[in-house]
Protein backbone atom coordinates (compact mmCIF):
# COMPACT_ATOMS: atom_id res chain seq x y z
CA UNK A 1 0.00 0.00 0.00
CA UNK A 2 1.05 3.60 -0.27
CA UNK A 3 3.25 4.99 2.45
CA UNK A 4 2.11 7.42 5.13
CA UNK A 5 5.05 9.64 4.19
CA UNK A 6 4.09 12.69 2.20
CA UNK A 7 6.42 13.79 -0.59
CA UNK A 8 8.06 17.18 -0.06
CA UNK A 9 8.10 19.95 -2.64
CA UNK A 10 11.73 19.24 -3.57
CA UNK A 11 10.90 15.62 -4.45
CA UNK A 12 7.90 16.62 -6.56
CA UNK A 13 9.98 19.25 -8.36
CA UNK A 14 12.80 16.77 -8.98
CA UNK A 15 10.44 14.36 -10.74
CA UNK A 16 8.83 17.14 -12.79
CA UNK A 17 12.19 18.64 -13.79
CA UNK A 18 13.51 15.22 -14.79
CA UNK A 19 10.54 14.62 -17.12
CA UNK A 20 10.77 18.09 -18.68
CA UNK A 21 14.51 17.78 -19.23
CA UNK A 22 14.14 14.32 -20.73
CA UNK A 23 11.47 15.74 -23.06
CA UNK A 24 13.97 18.27 -24.36
CA UNK A 25 16.83 15.78 -24.71
CA UNK A 26 14.89 12.89 -26.23
CA UNK A 27 11.50 14.09 -27.49
CA UNK A 28 9.15 11.16 -28.13
CA UNK A 29 8.25 10.25 -31.72
CA UNK A 30 4.67 11.23 -30.91
CA UNK A 31 4.61 14.42 -28.82
CA UNK A 32 2.85 14.05 -25.47
CA UNK A 33 -0.68 15.40 -25.31
CA UNK A 34 -0.99 19.06 -24.23
CA UNK A 35 -3.53 18.04 -21.53
CA UNK A 36 -1.00 15.67 -19.95
CA UNK A 37 1.78 18.27 -20.06
CA UNK A 38 -0.58 20.80 -18.51
CA UNK A 39 -1.46 18.36 -15.73
CA UNK A 40 2.25 17.76 -15.16
CA UNK A 41 3.15 21.46 -15.11
CA UNK A 42 0.18 23.13 -13.43
CA UNK A 43 -0.48 20.77 -10.53
CA UNK A 44 1.41 18.60 -8.05
CA UNK A 45 -1.42 16.08 -7.66
CA UNK A 46 -0.36 13.51 -10.27
CA UNK A 47 3.29 13.37 -9.18
CA UNK A 48 2.30 13.41 -5.49
CA UNK A 49 -0.01 10.42 -5.90
CA UNK A 50 2.66 8.46 -7.79
CA UNK A 51 5.32 9.27 -5.19
CA UNK A 52 2.98 8.14 -2.41
CA UNK A 53 2.10 4.82 -4.08
CA UNK A 54 5.78 4.17 -4.92
CA UNK A 55 6.79 4.97 -1.32
CA UNK A 56 8.83 8.05 -2.31
CA UNK A 57 11.01 6.05 -4.73
CA UNK A 58 11.96 8.93 -7.01
CA UNK A 59 13.67 6.83 -9.69
CA UNK A 60 10.70 4.45 -10.00
CA UNK A 61 8.34 7.41 -10.14
CA UNK A 62 10.34 9.05 -12.95
CA UNK A 63 10.37 5.86 -15.03
CA UNK A 64 6.69 5.05 -14.45
CA UNK A 65 5.53 8.61 -15.13
CA UNK A 66 7.44 8.74 -18.42
CA UNK A 67 6.06 5.33 -19.45
CA UNK A 68 2.59 6.54 -18.50
CA UNK A 69 2.93 9.64 -20.70
CA UNK A 70 4.07 7.45 -23.62
CA UNK A 71 1.15 5.06 -23.11
CA UNK A 72 -1.42 7.85 -22.79
CA UNK A 73 -0.26 9.24 -26.13
CA UNK A 74 -0.13 5.90 -27.97
CA UNK A 75 -3.50 4.76 -26.57
CA UNK A 76 -5.06 8.15 -27.38
CA UNK A 77 -6.36 8.50 -23.82
CA UNK A 78 -7.12 12.23 -24.04
CA UNK A 79 -9.10 11.79 -27.25
CA UNK A 80 -11.40 9.02 -25.99
CA UNK A 81 -15.01 10.17 -25.79
CA UNK A 82 -18.40 8.46 -25.63
CA UNK A 83 -18.63 9.00 -29.40
CA UNK A 84 -15.50 7.07 -30.44
CA UNK A 85 -15.63 3.97 -28.24
CA UNK A 86 -17.45 0.74 -29.11
CA UNK A 87 -21.10 1.76 -28.68
CA UNK A 88 -22.32 -1.74 -27.86
CA UNK A 89 -19.83 -2.12 -24.99
CA UNK A 90 -20.59 1.40 -23.74
CA UNK A 91 -24.35 0.91 -23.61
CA UNK A 92 -24.84 -2.79 -22.75
CA UNK A 93 -23.88 -2.49 -19.07
CA UNK A 94 -20.82 -4.73 -19.21
CA UNK A 95 -18.65 -1.87 -17.82
CA UNK A 96 -20.18 1.14 -16.07
CA UNK A 97 -20.03 3.41 -13.04
CA UNK A 98 -22.79 3.57 -10.45
CA UNK A 99 -23.04 4.36 -6.71
CA UNK A 100 -20.24 4.45 -4.14
CA UNK A 101 -18.55 2.19 -1.58
CA UNK A 102 -18.62 2.84 2.18
CA UNK A 103 -15.63 5.18 1.84
CA UNK A 104 -17.56 7.28 -0.66
CA UNK A 105 -15.47 6.07 -3.63
CA UNK A 106 -17.23 5.46 -6.98
CA UNK A 107 -17.90 1.87 -8.03
CA UNK A 108 -16.51 0.92 -11.44
CA UNK A 109 -18.60 -2.15 -12.20
CA UNK A 110 -17.50 -4.99 -14.46
CA UNK A 111 -20.40 -7.32 -15.21
CA UNK A 112 -18.47 -10.54 -15.83
CA UNK A 113 -21.60 -12.51 -16.80
CA UNK A 114 -21.73 -10.44 -20.00
CA UNK A 115 -18.12 -11.17 -20.97
CA UNK A 116 -16.82 -13.72 -23.44
CA UNK A 117 -13.47 -14.26 -25.13
CA UNK A 118 -15.00 -13.35 -28.48
CA UNK A 119 -15.32 -9.73 -27.36
CA UNK A 120 -12.68 -7.30 -28.57
CA UNK A 121 -10.29 -6.75 -25.65
CA UNK A 122 -8.87 -3.47 -26.98
CA UNK A 123 -12.39 -2.03 -27.40
CA UNK A 124 -13.32 -3.11 -23.87
CA UNK A 125 -10.19 -1.53 -22.43
CA UNK A 126 -11.01 1.72 -24.25
CA UNK A 127 -14.44 1.73 -22.57
CA UNK A 128 -12.75 1.03 -19.23
CA UNK A 129 -10.32 3.93 -19.78
CA UNK A 130 -13.24 6.16 -20.83
CA UNK A 131 -14.89 5.58 -17.42
CA UNK A 132 -11.69 5.91 -15.38
CA UNK A 133 -10.78 9.17 -17.12
CA UNK A 134 -14.32 10.48 -16.70
CA UNK A 135 -14.14 9.72 -12.97
CA UNK A 136 -10.71 11.35 -12.70
CA UNK A 137 -12.04 14.54 -14.31
CA UNK A 138 -14.95 14.56 -11.86
CA UNK A 139 -13.00 13.56 -8.74
CA UNK A 140 -9.52 14.97 -9.32
CA UNK A 141 -7.61 11.65 -9.46
CA UNK A 142 -9.54 10.32 -6.46
CA UNK A 143 -9.80 6.63 -5.63
CA UNK A 144 -12.14 4.14 -7.33
CA UNK A 145 -13.41 0.74 -6.20
CA UNK A 146 -13.30 -1.89 -8.93
CA UNK A 147 -16.38 -4.08 -8.52
CA UNK A 148 -16.15 -7.37 -10.40
CA UNK A 149 -19.71 -8.63 -10.38
CA UNK A 150 -19.46 -12.40 -10.87
CA UNK A 151 -23.19 -13.02 -10.24
CA UNK A 152 -24.43 -15.72 -12.59
CA UNK A 153 -21.11 -16.05 -14.40
CA UNK A 154 -19.61 -19.34 -15.55
CA UNK A 155 -16.51 -20.76 -17.19
CA UNK A 156 -17.46 -19.32 -20.58
CA UNK A 157 -17.32 -15.81 -19.07
CA UNK A 158 -13.90 -16.20 -17.54
CA UNK A 159 -11.18 -14.61 -19.65
CA UNK A 160 -7.87 -14.61 -17.79
CA UNK A 161 -6.18 -12.47 -20.45
CA UNK A 162 -8.84 -9.78 -20.07
CA UNK A 163 -8.60 -9.83 -16.26
CA UNK A 164 -4.80 -9.68 -16.55
CA UNK A 165 -5.10 -6.67 -18.84
CA UNK A 166 -7.38 -4.84 -16.40
CA UNK A 167 -5.07 -5.59 -13.47
CA UNK A 168 -2.06 -4.51 -15.51
CA UNK A 169 -3.75 -1.26 -16.42
CA UNK A 170 -4.46 -0.37 -12.81
CA UNK A 171 -1.02 -1.54 -11.69
CA UNK A 172 0.96 0.54 -14.19
CA UNK A 173 -1.34 3.27 -15.58
CA UNK A 174 -3.54 4.16 -12.59
CA UNK A 175 -1.65 2.66 -9.63
CA UNK A 176 -3.01 5.22 -7.16
CA UNK A 177 -6.65 4.69 -8.18
CA UNK A 178 -7.91 1.43 -6.60
CA UNK A 179 -9.55 1.76 -3.19
CA UNK A 180 -10.75 -1.86 -3.17
CA UNK A 181 -11.01 -4.64 -5.74
CA UNK A 182 -14.26 -6.39 -4.85
CA UNK A 183 -14.98 -9.79 -6.42
CA UNK A 184 -18.66 -10.37 -5.71
CA UNK A 185 -20.47 -13.74 -5.69
CA UNK A 186 -17.61 -15.79 -7.11
CA UNK A 187 -19.17 -19.08 -8.32
CA UNK A 188 -17.68 -22.23 -6.80
CA UNK A 189 -16.87 -23.43 -10.34
CA UNK A 190 -14.47 -20.52 -10.79
CA UNK A 191 -12.54 -20.93 -7.53
CA UNK A 192 -9.60 -22.71 -9.18
CA UNK A 193 -9.37 -20.12 -11.96
CA UNK A 194 -9.54 -17.34 -9.38
CA UNK A 195 -6.51 -18.79 -7.60
CA UNK A 196 -4.62 -18.33 -10.89
CA UNK A 197 -5.77 -14.70 -11.03
CA UNK A 198 -4.50 -14.11 -7.50
CA UNK A 199 -1.16 -15.54 -8.58
CA UNK A 200 -0.48 -12.68 -10.99
CA UNK A 201 -1.79 -9.92 -8.74
CA UNK A 202 0.85 -7.55 -7.33
CA UNK A 203 1.20 -7.49 -3.55
CA UNK A 204 -0.52 -4.10 -3.29
CA UNK A 205 -3.59 -5.42 -5.10
CA UNK A 206 -3.81 -8.53 -2.88
CA UNK A 207 -4.11 -6.26 0.17
CA UNK A 208 -7.20 -4.53 -1.20
CA UNK A 209 -8.76 -7.57 -2.90
CA UNK A 210 -11.92 -8.75 -1.13
CA UNK A 211 -14.18 -11.61 -2.16
CA UNK A 212 -17.75 -10.80 -1.11
CA UNK A 213 -21.15 -12.48 -1.04
CA UNK A 214 -24.66 -11.17 -0.42
CA UNK A 215 -24.09 -11.91 3.28
CA UNK A 216 -21.02 -9.71 3.76
CA UNK A 217 -21.06 -7.14 0.93
CA UNK A 218 -22.27 -4.52 3.43
CA UNK A 219 -18.79 -4.40 4.96
CA UNK A 220 -17.76 -2.49 1.82
CA UNK A 221 -20.95 -1.24 0.14
CA UNK A 222 -24.04 -0.37 2.16
CA UNK A 223 -27.48 -1.78 1.29
CA UNK A 224 -28.74 1.38 -0.43
CA UNK A 225 -25.71 1.45 -2.74
CA UNK A 226 -26.02 -2.28 -3.56
CA UNK A 227 -28.06 -3.41 -6.53
CA UNK A 228 -30.87 -5.85 -5.72
CA UNK A 229 -28.98 -8.59 -7.62
CA UNK A 230 -26.11 -8.13 -5.12
CA UNK A 231 -28.50 -8.41 -2.17
CA UNK A 232 -29.15 -4.69 -1.75
CA UNK A 233 -32.00 -2.17 -2.10
CA UNK A 234 -31.06 -0.39 -5.33
CA UNK A 235 -33.29 -1.38 -8.27
CA UNK A 236 -31.21 0.61 -10.78
CA UNK A 237 -30.94 -0.71 -14.33
CA UNK A 238 -27.98 0.65 -16.30
CA UNK A 239 -28.63 3.15 -19.04
CA UNK A 240 -25.77 5.16 -20.51
CA UNK A 241 -25.92 8.90 -19.78
Largest sheet: 5 strands, mixed
CATH superfamily of the largest domain: CRAL-TRIO lipid binding domain
Please state the average pLDDT score.
Answer: 94
Provide the low-confidence segments as ranges.
Answer: none
Based on CA atoms alone, the radius of gyration comes out at: 19 Å
Percent of residues in helices comes to 40-55%
- State the strand order across the main sheet: 1-2-3-4-5
Beta-strand content estimate: 5-15%
Structural class: alpha/beta
DSSP summary: helix tally:
9
What is the terminal-to-terminal distance?
A: 34 Å
The ordered string of helix (H) and strand (E) elements is: HHHHHEEHEHEHHE
Q: In CATH, what is the class of the largest domain?
A: Alpha Beta
By CATH, the architecture of the largest domain is named: 3-Layer(aba) Sandwich
The best one-word shape is: globular
Counting structural domains, the number is 2
Instruction: Give the total of beta strands.
Output: 5
Q: Any idea of the CATH topology of the largest domain?
A: Phosphatidylinositol Transfer Protein Sec14p
Amino acid sequence: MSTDKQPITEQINEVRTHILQRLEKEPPAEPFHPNDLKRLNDSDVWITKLLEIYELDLEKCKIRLWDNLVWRQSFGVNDITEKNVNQEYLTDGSIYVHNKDKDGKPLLILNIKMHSKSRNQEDLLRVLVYWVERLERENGLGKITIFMDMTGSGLSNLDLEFIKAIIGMFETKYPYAPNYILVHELPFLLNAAFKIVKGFLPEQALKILKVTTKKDIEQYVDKDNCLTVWGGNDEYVYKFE
